[in-house]
Amino acid sequence: MGVIRDLILEQVEAGNAERDRLWLEAHRSAEPRLFISSLGGCVRKAFFDAYRRVEGHPWCVERTHPFDTYLLEKFKYGNDWEDITYRELLGQLPGRIVRNVSLGDSIWAGRADFLVGKCFLPEGAVIEHKTTATWSFTYSEEKRQLPYKSHCYQVLAYKMFLGQMTGLDIPAYLYYRSANNLWAEFEVYEFGKEVIFDGEIAGHLVGGRFLGRLCTEMVKFQTYWNAGKLPPRYETPTFVDFGCTKKQGRAGNRVAVPACQFFSICWPGVETPIEVGE
Predict the structure, then answer these.
(1) Is residue 170 a contact partner of residue 124, using CB atoms and an 8 Å limit?
(2) Quick one: pLDDT band at residue 15, thresholds 50, 70, 90?
(3) How many CB atoms lie within 10 A of CB 122?
């Protein structure tokens, strides 16, 4: 690998290690709570993440498949894009935007990326910022990826906790950017038994819905949490794409490789890649 590239990756690894160290120091004495960003994902993994700082607890387990430097670099670029978005919004809304707003209760914890005061909307807005792959920004209904369900649940939870604090129905938005500056934004809300999203992908109007309720999703986690029980693993390592594993390769010759940092905790002895043949 090139000398310049080596230096960049070393800095990425060092920066990530320092962030981990500071996070663990800041939270070591706090009671474990579930991360709001876990909503829509694996319930079992959420418990491992929640107890990561509680040394000696049986749910404080080693990450058998830690993120590689390539992923760490992608996360860093995501943080960089968030910094840029914040500066751009701050320039237009001076004094009306707060960053990294802590929200939650005795079970849940999270930080909303941006909370905007009264400005373009009477109640302001809560905005969750995401950076994702370029291929996610297709706006055709058949291939559309955005917004992801997990992100919808996350920002709806922030909306709920803010509502409990303020008594206001604060609009919730997802804002996506890609490495080549594609963008998408959605207002997300609930109606009946569905989650609704309306917005744009790179200037193209889109909208949609999926069956689901935030309260139902939260209960999936809270049932095990309140009972003090570790949730079961998925039925198979390939049961959910981007759960335990993710699929790679071309159609007809695909394999599944670990996508979860705790893969071997749940699937000891399982060899990867796993042939799926789709």
Answers:
(1) yes
(2) confident
(3) 8
Q: Enumerate the β-bridge partners of residue 174.
A: 128, 186
Q: What's the CA gap between 273 and 278, in Å, rounded?
A: 14
First to last CA, the chain: 33
Please give the average per-residue pLDDT across 181-202, as a whole number. Answer: 96
Closest CA relative to residue 39, chosen from 158, 201, 146, 167: 158
* Pair of tokens at residue 217: 């999703």
| Residues contacting residue 4 through CB under 8 Å, at least 6 positions apart | none
- Residue 147, preceding bond cis, omega within 30 degrees? yes
DSSP letter (8 states) at residue 242: T
Spell out the domain ranges in the chain: 15-227, 245-275
Lowest-confidence range among 4-18, 80-94, 149-163, 234-248? 4-18
Per-residue pLDDT reduced to its tens digit, 41-100:
999 999 999 998 888 999 999 999 988 888 888 888 889 999 999 999 999 988 899 999
Contact 101, 111 (CB under 8 A): yes
| pLDDT tens digit sequence for 210-250 | 999 999 999 999 999 999 999 999 999 998 888 999 988 87
3-class secondary structure per residue, 150-186: HHHHHHHHHHHHHHHHHCCCCCEEEEEECCCCCEEEE
CATH number of 15-227: 3.90.320
Rounded CA separation 97/86 (Å): 8
Give the separation between CA 37 and CA 53, rounded to whole angstroms: 17
Residue 48, exposed/middle/buried by CB under 10 A (0-12, 13-18, 19+)? buried
